[in-house]
Specification:
five-stranded mixed β-sheet; binds adenosine-5'-triphosphate; Alpha-Beta Plaits; HisG_C; alpha/beta; 3 domains; 8 helices; six-stranded mixed β-sheet; binds magnesium ion; cytoplasm
Protein backbone atom coordinates (compact mmCIF):
# COMPACT_ATOMS: atom_id res chain seq x y z
CA UNK A 1 0.00 0.00 0.00
CA UNK A 2 1.16 3.54 -0.77
CA UNK A 3 2.35 5.13 2.51
CA UNK A 4 2.62 8.54 0.89
CA UNK A 5 -1.05 9.31 0.41
CA UNK A 6 -3.98 9.78 2.78
CA UNK A 7 -7.13 7.76 2.21
CA UNK A 8 -10.07 9.67 3.63
CA UNK A 9 -13.34 7.77 4.17
CA UNK A 10 -16.57 9.74 4.12
CA UNK A 11 -20.24 8.74 4.11
CA UNK A 12 -21.47 7.82 0.63
CA UNK A 13 -24.97 9.19 1.02
CA UNK A 14 -26.62 10.40 4.16
CA UNK A 15 -26.70 13.25 6.61
CA UNK A 16 -22.91 13.60 6.82
CA UNK A 17 -22.15 13.44 3.09
CA UNK A 18 -22.77 16.98 1.94
CA UNK A 19 -20.95 18.71 4.81
CA UNK A 20 -18.03 16.24 4.61
CA UNK A 21 -17.54 16.95 0.89
CA UNK A 22 -17.92 20.68 1.48
CA UNK A 23 -15.27 20.66 4.20
CA UNK A 24 -12.77 18.79 2.02
CA UNK A 25 -13.41 21.23 -0.84
CA UNK A 26 -13.09 24.26 1.47
CA UNK A 27 -9.68 22.92 2.44
CA UNK A 28 -8.70 23.44 -1.20
CA UNK A 29 -8.65 19.72 -2.06
CA UNK A 30 -10.09 19.13 -5.53
CA UNK A 31 -11.43 15.84 -6.85
CA UNK A 32 -14.01 14.52 -9.25
CA UNK A 33 -16.95 13.03 -7.34
CA UNK A 34 -19.01 11.72 -10.21
CA UNK A 35 -22.30 10.11 -9.14
CA UNK A 36 -21.95 6.53 -7.98
CA UNK A 37 -18.15 6.66 -7.59
CA UNK A 38 -16.88 4.73 -4.57
CA UNK A 39 -13.29 5.98 -4.75
CA UNK A 40 -11.75 9.06 -6.27
CA UNK A 41 -8.28 10.64 -6.37
CA UNK A 42 -7.68 14.21 -5.30
CA UNK A 43 -6.04 16.15 -8.10
CA UNK A 44 -4.00 18.64 -6.08
CA UNK A 45 -3.28 16.85 -2.76
CA UNK A 46 -1.90 13.35 -2.14
CA UNK A 47 -5.25 11.92 -1.07
CA UNK A 48 -7.96 9.47 -2.10
CA UNK A 49 -11.57 9.75 -1.02
CA UNK A 50 -13.52 6.56 -0.25
CA UNK A 51 -17.33 6.72 -0.17
CA UNK A 52 -18.71 4.22 2.41
CA UNK A 53 -21.63 3.45 4.73
CA UNK A 54 -20.98 5.47 7.88
CA UNK A 55 -21.09 2.38 10.15
CA UNK A 56 -18.17 0.84 8.24
CA UNK A 57 -15.87 3.86 8.53
CA UNK A 58 -14.44 3.27 12.07
CA UNK A 59 -13.55 -0.33 11.18
CA UNK A 60 -11.82 0.67 7.94
CA UNK A 61 -9.84 3.31 9.84
CA UNK A 62 -8.89 0.86 12.62
CA UNK A 63 -7.62 -1.62 10.01
CA UNK A 64 -5.69 1.14 8.22
CA UNK A 65 -7.60 0.56 4.97
CA UNK A 66 -8.60 4.20 5.33
CA UNK A 67 -6.24 6.55 7.19
CA UNK A 68 -8.84 9.15 8.10
CA UNK A 69 -12.61 9.11 8.38
CA UNK A 70 -15.42 11.56 8.95
CA UNK A 71 -18.22 10.09 11.09
CA UNK A 72 -20.65 11.00 13.84
CA UNK A 73 -19.09 10.64 17.29
CA UNK A 74 -22.10 8.46 18.10
CA UNK A 75 -21.08 5.92 15.46
CA UNK A 76 -17.39 6.11 16.33
CA UNK A 77 -17.99 5.64 20.08
CA UNK A 78 -20.53 2.87 19.58
CA UNK A 79 -18.14 0.98 17.31
CA UNK A 80 -15.46 0.79 20.07
CA UNK A 81 -12.81 0.68 17.37
CA UNK A 82 -9.23 1.58 18.25
CA UNK A 83 -8.91 4.91 16.42
CA UNK A 84 -7.85 8.44 17.39
CA UNK A 85 -10.45 11.21 17.37
CA UNK A 86 -8.31 14.04 16.01
CA UNK A 87 -10.78 16.90 15.51
CA UNK A 88 -14.39 17.91 16.10
CA UNK A 89 -15.91 19.25 12.92
CA UNK A 90 -18.92 21.21 14.21
CA UNK A 91 -21.60 19.81 11.89
CA UNK A 92 -24.25 17.05 12.15
CA UNK A 93 -24.89 17.93 15.77
CA UNK A 94 -27.40 15.62 17.41
CA UNK A 95 -27.94 13.74 20.64
CA UNK A 96 -28.64 10.19 21.65
CA UNK A 97 -31.70 10.20 23.88
CA UNK A 98 -34.08 7.87 25.67
CA UNK A 99 -37.76 8.28 24.86
CA UNK A 100 -40.82 6.72 26.46
CA UNK A 101 -44.51 6.77 25.52
CA UNK A 102 -45.95 10.24 26.04
CA UNK A 103 -48.57 8.98 28.49
CA UNK A 104 -46.08 6.91 30.53
CA UNK A 105 -45.20 8.16 34.00
CA UNK A 106 -41.53 8.98 34.21
CA UNK A 107 -39.71 10.42 37.22
CA UNK A 108 -36.10 9.56 36.51
CA UNK A 109 -33.66 7.04 35.12
CA UNK A 110 -34.47 4.54 37.91
CA UNK A 111 -37.90 4.10 36.29
CA UNK A 112 -36.12 2.21 33.49
CA UNK A 113 -35.12 -0.60 35.89
CA UNK A 114 -36.34 -3.92 34.48
CA UNK A 115 -37.79 -2.27 31.36
CA UNK A 116 -36.95 -3.12 27.75
CA UNK A 117 -35.30 -0.47 25.59
CA UNK A 118 -35.00 -0.72 21.80
CA UNK A 119 -31.91 0.86 20.23
CA UNK A 120 -29.29 0.72 17.50
CA UNK A 121 -26.74 1.92 20.08
CA UNK A 122 -26.53 -0.99 22.59
CA UNK A 123 -23.02 -0.21 23.83
CA UNK A 124 -23.55 3.48 24.57
CA UNK A 125 -26.88 2.67 26.21
CA UNK A 126 -25.36 -0.08 28.33
CA UNK A 127 -22.57 2.24 29.52
CA UNK A 128 -25.12 4.90 30.44
CA UNK A 129 -27.40 2.50 32.34
CA UNK A 130 -24.43 0.96 34.13
CA UNK A 131 -23.20 4.38 35.25
CA UNK A 132 -26.66 4.98 36.75
CA UNK A 133 -26.90 1.51 38.34
CA UNK A 134 -29.92 0.60 36.25
CA UNK A 135 -30.44 -2.84 34.73
CA UNK A 136 -32.68 -2.95 31.69
CA UNK A 137 -33.22 -5.34 28.82
CA UNK A 138 -31.48 -3.81 25.77
CA UNK A 139 -33.19 -4.82 22.57
CA UNK A 140 -30.89 -4.19 19.60
CA UNK A 141 -32.66 -3.41 16.33
CA UNK A 142 -31.21 -1.90 13.18
CA UNK A 143 -33.76 0.78 12.28
CA UNK A 144 -37.22 2.33 12.77
CA UNK A 145 -36.54 2.30 16.48
CA UNK A 146 -39.22 4.88 17.29
CA UNK A 147 -42.16 2.59 16.58
CA UNK A 148 -41.00 -0.07 19.07
CA UNK A 149 -43.07 1.14 22.09
CA UNK A 150 -46.30 1.67 20.13
CA UNK A 151 -46.19 -1.88 18.73
CA UNK A 152 -45.30 -3.41 22.09
CA UNK A 153 -41.74 -4.38 21.19
CA UNK A 154 -40.17 -2.34 23.99
CA UNK A 155 -41.07 0.05 26.82
CA UNK A 156 -38.64 2.74 25.69
CA UNK A 157 -36.26 3.68 22.86
CA UNK A 158 -32.76 5.09 22.74
CA UNK A 159 -32.13 6.86 19.46
CA UNK A 160 -30.61 9.86 17.66
CA UNK A 161 -32.58 13.09 18.10
CA UNK A 162 -31.97 16.51 16.63
CA UNK A 163 -35.21 18.49 16.86
CA UNK A 164 -37.23 15.80 18.67
CA UNK A 165 -40.00 15.88 16.06
CA UNK A 166 -39.60 12.18 15.09
CA UNK A 167 -40.04 11.15 18.72
CA UNK A 168 -43.10 13.39 19.06
CA UNK A 169 -44.72 12.15 15.88
CA UNK A 170 -44.37 8.58 17.17
CA UNK A 171 -46.14 9.41 20.45
CA UNK A 172 -42.93 9.52 22.48
CA UNK A 173 -41.36 12.03 24.86
CA UNK A 174 -37.65 12.56 25.33
CA UNK A 175 -36.68 11.83 28.94
CA UNK A 176 -32.88 11.45 29.07
CA UNK A 177 -29.99 12.61 26.89
CA UNK A 178 -27.22 10.06 27.11
CA UNK A 179 -24.70 11.35 24.56
CA UNK A 180 -24.10 14.56 22.57
CA UNK A 181 -22.59 14.08 19.14
CA UNK A 182 -21.18 15.95 16.18
CA UNK A 183 -19.16 14.92 13.16
CA UNK A 184 -15.54 14.14 14.02
CA UNK A 185 -12.40 13.30 12.12
CA UNK A 186 -10.95 9.97 13.18
CA UNK A 187 -7.49 8.73 12.27
CA UNK A 188 -5.69 5.41 12.14
CA UNK A 189 -3.12 4.77 14.87
CA UNK A 190 -0.67 3.49 12.25
CA UNK A 191 0.08 6.47 10.02
CA UNK A 192 3.42 6.67 8.26
CA UNK A 193 5.49 9.83 8.95
CA UNK A 194 4.41 11.22 5.55
CA UNK A 195 0.74 10.52 6.33
CA UNK A 196 1.09 12.15 9.77
CA UNK A 197 2.54 15.21 8.06
CA UNK A 198 -0.34 15.27 5.52
CA UNK A 199 -2.84 14.95 8.40
CA UNK A 200 -1.21 17.94 10.15
CA UNK A 201 -1.51 19.96 6.92
CA UNK A 202 -5.15 18.99 6.57
CA UNK A 203 -5.95 19.86 10.21
CA UNK A 204 -4.27 23.24 9.77
CA UNK A 205 -6.53 23.90 6.76
CA UNK A 206 -9.66 22.68 8.57
CA UNK A 207 -8.95 24.94 11.57
CA UNK A 208 -8.41 27.93 9.22
CA UNK A 209 -11.77 27.27 7.58
CA UNK A 210 -13.52 26.87 10.96
CA UNK A 211 -12.04 30.07 12.42
CA UNK A 212 -12.99 31.98 9.26
CA UNK A 213 -16.60 30.78 9.50
CA UNK A 214 -16.96 32.20 13.01
CA UNK A 215 -15.52 35.59 12.07
CA UNK A 216 -16.50 38.42 9.73
CA UNK A 217 -14.56 41.22 8.12
CA UNK A 218 -16.19 44.54 8.99
CA UNK A 219 -15.80 47.93 7.31
CA UNK A 220 -17.39 51.13 8.52
CA UNK A 221 -17.10 54.89 8.29
CA UNK A 222 -16.85 57.02 11.40
CA UNK A 223 -15.67 60.44 12.61
CA UNK A 224 -11.96 60.33 13.51
CA UNK A 225 -12.74 61.25 17.12
CA UNK A 226 -14.99 58.15 17.43
CA UNK A 227 -12.20 55.70 16.50
CA UNK A 228 -10.99 55.11 20.05
CA UNK A 229 -14.47 54.30 21.31
CA UNK A 230 -15.38 52.04 18.36
CA UNK A 231 -12.06 50.18 18.62
CA UNK A 232 -13.10 48.99 22.11
CA UNK A 233 -15.77 46.88 20.35
CA UNK A 234 -13.66 45.98 17.32
CA UNK A 235 -10.16 45.14 18.56
CA UNK A 236 -9.39 43.13 15.40
CA UNK A 237 -6.62 40.56 15.07
CA UNK A 238 -3.96 43.01 16.23
CA UNK A 239 -5.73 46.35 15.88
CA UNK A 240 -8.12 47.82 13.29
CA UNK A 241 -6.93 49.39 10.03
CA UNK A 242 -7.78 53.10 9.78
CA UNK A 243 -7.86 54.81 6.36
CA UNK A 244 -8.67 58.50 5.82
CA UNK A 245 -11.84 59.39 3.87
CA UNK A 246 -11.94 62.26 1.35
CA UNK A 247 -14.31 64.01 3.80
CA UNK A 248 -12.30 65.94 6.40
CA UNK A 249 -12.52 64.49 9.95
CA UNK A 250 -13.81 61.06 8.78
CA UNK A 251 -12.15 57.71 8.31
CA UNK A 252 -12.85 54.16 7.26
CA UNK A 253 -12.22 51.51 9.95
CA UNK A 254 -11.59 47.85 8.97
CA UNK A 255 -11.52 45.02 11.45
CA UNK A 256 -12.35 41.38 12.11
CA UNK A 257 -15.01 40.37 14.60
CA UNK A 258 -16.50 37.15 15.92
CA UNK A 259 -20.01 36.89 14.48
CA UNK A 260 -21.68 36.47 17.89
CA UNK A 261 -19.80 39.50 19.25
CA UNK A 262 -20.92 41.49 16.20
CA UNK A 263 -24.60 41.03 17.07
CA UNK A 264 -23.89 41.82 20.73
CA UNK A 265 -22.03 45.04 19.91
CA UNK A 266 -23.61 46.43 16.76
CA UNK A 267 -25.87 48.92 18.58
CA UNK A 268 -22.96 50.27 20.64
CA UNK A 269 -20.87 50.65 17.48
CA UNK A 270 -23.66 52.63 15.80
CA UNK A 271 -24.24 54.79 18.85
CA UNK A 272 -20.52 55.58 18.87
CA UNK A 273 -20.97 57.18 15.42
CA UNK A 274 -20.37 54.39 12.88
CA UNK A 275 -22.12 54.61 9.50
CA UNK A 276 -22.18 52.59 6.30
CA UNK A 277 -21.32 49.33 8.07
CA UNK A 278 -20.40 46.44 5.74
CA UNK A 279 -19.94 42.87 6.99
CA UNK A 280 -18.11 40.49 4.67
CA UNK A 281 -17.52 36.74 4.99
CA UNK A 282 -13.94 35.53 5.36
CA UNK A 283 -12.90 32.48 3.36
CA UNK A 284 -9.78 31.41 5.30
CA UNK A 285 -8.22 32.84 8.44
CA UNK A 286 -4.71 31.95 9.59
CA UNK A 287 -4.25 32.84 13.25
P1 LIG B 1 -25.57 4.91 6.19
O1 LIG B 1 -26.43 4.52 5.06
O2 LIG B 1 -24.29 5.56 5.73
O3 LIG B 1 -25.35 3.81 7.20
P2 LIG B 1 -27.29 6.10 8.23
O4 LIG B 1 -28.71 5.99 7.81
O5 LIG B 1 -26.73 5.17 9.25
O6 LIG B 1 -26.37 6.10 6.92
P3 LIG B 1 -27.64 8.99 8.60
O7 LIG B 1 -29.09 9.04 8.94
O8 LIG B 1 -27.21 9.51 7.27
O9 LIG B 1 -27.00 7.53 8.83
O10 LIG B 1 -26.88 9.76 9.76
C1 LIG B 1 -25.48 9.85 9.79
C2 LIG B 1 -25.05 10.57 11.05
O11 LIG B 1 -25.56 11.91 11.04
C3 LIG B 1 -25.56 9.99 12.35
O12 LIG B 1 -24.78 8.91 12.81
C4 LIG B 1 -25.48 11.17 13.28
O13 LIG B 1 -24.15 11.37 13.73
C5 LIG B 1 -25.86 12.30 12.36
N1 LIG B 1 -27.30 12.57 12.44
C6 LIG B 1 -28.30 11.69 12.42
N2 LIG B 1 -29.50 12.27 12.51
C7 LIG B 1 -29.25 13.56 12.55
C8 LIG B 1 -30.09 14.69 12.59
N3 LIG B 1 -31.41 14.59 12.63
N4 LIG B 1 -29.51 15.89 12.58
C9 LIG B 1 -28.17 16.01 12.53
N5 LIG B 1 -27.33 14.96 12.49
C10 LIG B 1 -27.86 13.77 12.50
MG1 LIG C 1 -25.31 3.92 9.13
Amino acid sequence: MNDNILRIAIQKSGRLSEDSLKLIKECGIRFDNGAGKLKTDATNFPAEILFLRDDDIPGYVEDGVAHLGIVGENVSEESCKDVDTVHKLGFSKCRLSIGVLREAEYHGVQDLEGKSIATTYPRLLEQYLKSHNVTADIHEISGSVEIAPSIGLADAVCDIVSSGSTLLSNGLKEVETIFRSEAVMIASKHLSPVQQDLLDQLLFRIKSVQVAKNNKYILLNCPVDAVENITKFLPGMRSPTILPLATEGWCSLHSVINENKFWENIEKIRQAGAEGILVIPIEKMIV
